[in-house]
Structure formats: C-alpha cells, structure tokens
Write a structure and sequence with these properties.
There is one protein chain. The protein has one domain: Rhopdopsin 7-helix transmembrane proteins (Up-down Bundle). It has eleven helices and no strands. Helices cover 76% and strands 0% of the residues.
Length: 277
C-alpha cells in the first residue's frame, strides 16, 4: 500500500484516478494503524464498558468500509467523465477534486454511520461484545438494517453493472481501454478488472462479517468454531481484503509492479547492510 501511495506522488502519476486509488490505500493504512491495534487491545483487556467509545469504534469500522466502496464508485464515474465529457482532462484541478471527493465521502460515511449506531434498535453484536452488556429486550429482535451501507452497495453494483455492459458494447470505450493498457501507459492504476475485484473484496468485507457474526447470540459465540471465526473476521479477513484490493491494482499495472519490486529490493539491501550480511 505504501508503494502505491509513493508511486502516485510522482508528478507525472498524479492524476485524479491515481489519487483516488491512493486514497484507498490510505484507508487501509488507517485501518492497520488504528482499528487493528484497538481490536487487539480490546481482546487483551476485555470489555470497555462505554457505549460512546464502542459506538465510535463501530462508526469508524463501518465508515472505512463504506469509504472504500464509494471511492471505487468515484473511480468509475471519473473514468467515464474523462473519456466522454472532458475535452481537456489535463486542465482539471486534480488535487482539488480529490480533496473534495474524499471530504464528501468522509462526511457522508461518518454521519450516516453515527445515525445508524446511535439510533434506537438492536446494534450489531460487535457493539455489545465491546460494551460487555447485552440488553435482554433485544434478544429476539433482528439487528437493525444499516440502510446507508445497503443503499451505497446497491448503487455501486448498478454503476459497475452499467460500466461492464458499456465496456462490452461500446467501441470507443474498448479503444480507450486498449490505448491505456499496460503496454502503452504505465502511469494509470485503473483497469475495469481491478476495480471490479477490489469492489467485490470490499463487499465481502462489509457484509460477511455482519451476516456470520452480528446475527449470533452471545452464548453461541463461545462455541467452537464460532470464536475462531470471530477472530478471523476481525483480524485476518480485513488483511485478506486489503491484499486483494492492493493485488488487483498491482496485477494490471506494469509500472506499479516494477515500483514495488524496486522498493522490495531496497528494503532487502537495507537489512543486508544493517546486519552486514
């Protein structure tokens, strides 16, 4: 993820689409540096017994997932505008629009998830596991729907479906995909395939965890193999999702693969010099 961010920072690579991809990588970095340590510490120390802290934890967790899905949608929309409406894409203020899109996404995700978590009703099981209290009155009630995430997901599916159909039947789109392929242009991190793979990975992360874990009663979470599934989904499922998202862009970008390989060799050389090996 850091290699992709560094790749985008090079002046001739700083297109709006590449900056949005870099935003995805920054979301992954925030997850690894903030959410993962918080979850690990919570497993070590036990319940937090604070609805505010646990609510903020759930809001941040859901917001990052929603933020990633929205960025994939924006990449499709921006790509379409570049090909069919903007006569001079180089005149676009990429830095401004990247900042605008990211701030708009952050605001929408955080506000919608705040309303979802703190509105009346049964929250996901992760919330009550964090607090350490499970209200008896919610025992036979279903978890309230995360409508904002559901609507965003349906919207994203429609955008990718339309883009896929357009990609199959529009000759101009096909030609543009060919001329911007890895053989002729190594600066773009976008391909339709990588975008679809990344979005599917984000969907799986956003919905498998709630379906498998959040619907379970607390007594069932102590049974084998439910507690192993819980640990996997909280930790390794996220890392697997980030690996799929990152790998999808690396697979289709020759320039990016060269950059990652160069960075990897530099790290090896650093450790060789450090240990005189």
């Amino acid at each position: 993820m850091l290699s992709i961010i560094d790749f985008e920072r090079v002046h001739h690579n700083r297109t709006l689409i590449n900056q949005l991809v870099s935003g995805l990588m920054w979301a992954g970095v925030v997850w690894n540096l903030v959410m993962q340590p918080l979850t690990f510490i919570r497993y070590l120390v036990g319940f937090i017994d604070s609805q505010i802290i646990c609510g903020l934890d759930a809001i941040l967790r859901n917001s990052i997932s929603m933020f990633g899905i929205l960025l994939f949608d924006w990449i499709i929309i921006v790509r379409y505008l570049f090909l069919f409406y903007l006569k001079n894409p180089t005149a676009l203020q990429d830095d401004f629009w990247k900042l605008f899109i990211c701030l708009w996404n952050v605001g929408l995700c955080s506000i919608s998830q705040f309303v979802y978590i703190f509105s009346p009703g049964k929250n996901p099981m992760n919330f009550y596991m964090c607090v350490g209290q499970y209200p008896i009155e919610y025992q036979n009630l279903p978890v309230k729907l995360n409508l904002s995430l559901l609507f965003i997901s349906i919207f994203s599916l429609l955008i990718h479906l339309v883009a896929g159909i357009w990609n199959m039947y529009n000759d101009h789109w096909k030609k543009s995909q060919l001329t911007n392929s890895d053989n002729t242009n190594n600066t773009s991190l976008f391909t339709h395939t990588s975008n679809i793979f990344g979005t599917i990975a984000m969907f799986l992360f956003a919905f498998i965890n709630p379906v498998l874990i959040n619907q379970m009663e607390p007594s069932k979470l102590d049974l084998y193999p439910n507690y192993l599934l819980l640990y996997f989904l909280h930790h390794y499922n996220t890392q697997l999702t980030l690996a799929i998202v990152t790998g999808a862009f690396l697979y289709k970008s020759c320039g990016m693969r060269s950059k990652v390989w160069k960075d990897f060799k530099n790290i090896l050389n650093f450790f060789r010099k450090l240990f005189n090996y």
